[in-house]
Design brief:
Helix content is 41%, strand content 20%. The protein is of the alpha/beta class. The chain folds into 2 domains: 231 residues, Spore Coat Polysaccharide Biosynthesis Protein SpsA, Chain A; 79 residues, no CATH class. Strands 1, 2, 3, 4, 5, 6, 7, 8, 9, 10 and 11 form an 11-stranded mixed β-sheet that branches. Helix 2 links the parallel strand 2 and strand 3. The longest helix has 24 residues. The radius of gyration is 21 Å and the shape is globular. The termini are far apart.
Length: 326
């Protein structure tokens, strides 16, 4: 029986993959979706003007499996947020997931999350643990190794390894760390406003963090403490650019502060301000190492404005001079 003639086995799930020169790792990513135990899905692969064999690979799978859809951008978007937004324009599913072209799913990912969201209609999304792997797929550490203990005050056990996050989880997420990895999420599309489902194109690396905060403000989430996706570590990962990561994190956190402040207690507000100050301080040092003195001074002054700690003013003064050779 071909994929196009498979009987309906539950609500349709849409999986979006943003692609750009993705030929090296794309086949395992595609196959991890098509081989899911949950079969009623569409795989939307959005090509951002690749110059390698990406399109040919996708076309080959599309010929063999009617669930595969190739969307080709006519102009280069240049960042994942743009490409994923193009995919969102073509989604038909009741549930929505994302997969990076160099990562892959556990074969029970979709079945597990669909079952949980169907059983908990008040929840807007579910996410799970992610295994980091090297280029060849050998396991490294896990993404959320201490999450269950650190988030215990915001979770209720539903069943073994499955937790419901409370209405204040969004604040914990913003204040302490970005707990959600893009490839781990399944969103219940009809449970959130349609204008909530987009990626902010200002970001190179934090567009997903921004979306998860907005989702958290819309309703509760479910956490599955099982490895259901695999995040490949290699030299071309976009997050290797430290300065860009810091810059994006600060845009994300300052905007998140504006969104969540009215629903946060004073302790959480103070903790988030301190975290923003810390990121500005780290950015100041990165600028200083690159001999960008004006930016370095500006970052340290921003750190002082968020925390009022005098040490940041000292660092701002030091930033007027080149750092010592290491």
């Amino acid at each position: 029986m071909t994929a196009s003639t498979l009987p309906d086995q539950g609500p349709l799930v849409s999986v979006i993959v943003a692609c750009y020169n993705s030929a090296r790792f794309l086949r395992p990513a595609i196959e991890s979706v098509l081989q899911q135990t949950y079969r009623n899905l569409e795989l939307i692969l959005v090509d951002d003007c690749s110059t390698d064999d990406t399109v040919a690979i996708i076309e080959g799978y599309a010929r063999d499996d009617a669930r595969v859809r190739l969307i080709r951008r006519e102009t280069r978007g240049g960042r994942p947020a743009v490409t994923k937004n193009t995919g969102l324009e073509h989604v038909r599913g009741r549930y929505l997931c994302f997969l990076d072209h160099d990562d892959y799913y556990h074969l029970d990912k979709l079945a597990t999350q669909v079952k949980l969201l169907e059983a908990n209609p008040d929840c807007v999304a579910a996410f799970h643990e992610v295994q980091l792997v090297d280029e060849g797929g050998a396991p490294l550490n896990c993404y959320l190794e201490r999450f269950v203990s650190e988030a215990a005050a915001h979770q209720t056990l539903l069943e073994p390894d499955v937790y419901r996050c409370d209405e204040n989880f969004f604040a914990f997420q913003v204040v302490h760390y970005a707990a959600i990895h893009t490839i781990s999420v399944m969103i219940a599309v009809d449970r959130v406003p349609r204008d909530c489902l987009y990626f902010d194109t200002r970001y190179q690396v934090c567009d997903d963090n921004d979306l998860w905060v907005r989702l958290g403000l819309e309703g509760r989430m479910i956490y599955v403490d099982r490895i259901l996706s695999f995040y490949r570590q290699h030299g071309t990962n976009i997050t290797r650019n430290q300065v860009k990561v810091q810059e994006d994190m600060l845009i994300y956190m300052t905007q998140a502060f504006e969104r969540v402040q009215p629903r946060m207690g004073q302790a959480d507000q103070d903790a988030l301000k301190a975290r923003i100050a810390h990121y500005y301080s780290d950015l100041g040092w990165l600028y200083r190492r690159r001999r960008e003195r004006a930016k370095s001074v500006g970052a340290y002054l921003k750190a002082w404005q968020w925390s009022s700690a005098g040490a940041h003013l000292v660092h701002a003064a030091k930033a007027c001079f080149a750092p010592r050779a290491s």
